UniProtKB/TrEMBL annotation:
Database matches in InterPro entries: AKR, Aldo/ket_reductase_CS, NAD(P)_OxRdtase_dom_sf, NADP_OxRdtase_dom
Family stated for the protein in its record: Belongs to the aldo/keto reductase family.
The keyword NADP is annotated on this UniProt entry: yes
PROSITE patterns per the UniProt record, alphabetical: ALDOKETO_REDUCTASE_1, ALDOKETO_REDUCTASE_2, ALDOKETO_REDUCTASE_3
Range of residues in the leader sequence: none
Organism: Anaerocolumna xylanovorans DSM 12503
Molecular function in Gene Ontology: oxidoreductase activity, acting on the CH-OH group of donors, NAD or NADP as acceptor
SUPFAM superfamilies according to UniProt: NAD(P)-linked oxidoreductase
Alphabetized UniProt keyword annotations: NADP, Oxidoreductase
Active site (record annotation): 49 (proton donor)
Residue(s) at site: Lowers pKa of active site Tyr: 74
Membrane-crossing segments per the record: none
Pfam families per the UniProt record, alphabetical: Aldo_ket_red (PF00248)
Protein name, UniProt field: Aldo/keto reductase family protein
Length: 283
């Protein structure tokens, strides 16, 4: 496993395990246990995934010391605000059964996220979280936050895969020293990514799967990845990407797959923003 050093000196694994869309408690818990036993040390969840308690149970059961794990969760839109964020953080901590978090992220740039950020800055300074960051902050939102906040975000988790490469977003993150992290690094299986002829050809050259090539491509761009799977063989396969390196020629071929837009979500859509505001994680 390779690591990246965040802008506050904290080391973060370059690959982790995501649990988005794994709400079934037993399935989520077992998947996380399997992932940790396979070698993953970064686990990424969120209040909006409704599985923090399952992740916490897996952490307790896995047998790996807490200090060897890097645990991330996220603040939902409903709790954007100073006081609300303080309460939501503690709720997540309690559900996970932890004394501290390694990384706490604002899930969406909506609502009073500046109030939430002030609360997160305080939690960070109190040592309750080792690093704070954001998700889905496009370049203009990230720039504004970086120029306004006392603590620069350590991480920005955004959609990054061959069909939506976001080079402009990566350039902005590099400018401010923010670590990019990819959600949906396998494009949620869209566009026939696993059977794409060019990716299949590249994978054959290295004796790897298409998924392994796509994941490796992102890490070679300096992007942290958090692939998700509930299947043990895929969990193991997705982690087996650290014994090869894509050539510049193959990196360039993949770079030409970029569509320049997301086909998973449209954060600029008023209807999508309304939906995010309407989604509640508690009463």
């Amino acid at each position: 496993m390779e690591f990246t050093t965040l802008n506050n000196g904290i080391k973060m694994p370059m690959e982790g395990f995501g649990v988005f869309q794994v709400p079934d408690p037993a399935q989520c818990e077992q998947s996380v246990v399997n992932a940790i036993q396979a070698g993953y040390r970064l686990i990424d969840t969120a209040a909006a995934y409704f599985n923090e308690e399952s992740v916490g149970a897996a952490i307790k059961k896995c047998g790996v010391p807490r200090e060897e794990l890097f645990i991330t969760t996220k603040l939902w839109v409903q709790d954007a605000g100073y006081e609300e964020a303080k309460k939501a953080f503690q709720t997540s901590l309690d559900k996970l059964g932890l004394d501290y978090l390694d990384l706490y992220l604002i899930h969406q740039p909506l609502g009073d996220y500046y109030g939430a950020w002030r609360a997160m800055e305080e939690l960070y300074k109190e040592g309750k979280v080792k690093a704070i960051g954001v998700c889905n902050f496009y370049p203009e939102r990230l720039t504004d936050l970086c120029l306004t906040a006392k603590v620069t975000p350590a991480v920005n988790q955004v959609e990054l895969h061959p069909f939506f490469q976001q080079e402009n977003a990566l350039a902005t993150m590099k400018e401010f020293g923010v670590q990019p992290e990819a959600w949906g690094p396998l494009a949620e299986g869209k566009h026939g990514i696993f059977t794409d002829p060019m990716l299949t050809e590249i994978a054959g050259k290295y004796g790897k799967s298409v998924a392994q090539v796509v994941l490796r491509w992102n890490t070679q761009r300096g992007v942290v990845i958090i692939p998700k799977s509930i299947h043990q063989n895929r969990i193991v396969e997705n982690l087996d990407i650290w014994d090869f390196e894509l050539s510049k020629e193959d990196m360039d071929k993949i770079s030409r797959m970029d569509l320049g837009h997301s086909e998973i979500v449209d954060h600029s859509s008023p209807e999508f923003v309304k939906y995010l505001h309407s989604a509640k994680v508690h009463n």
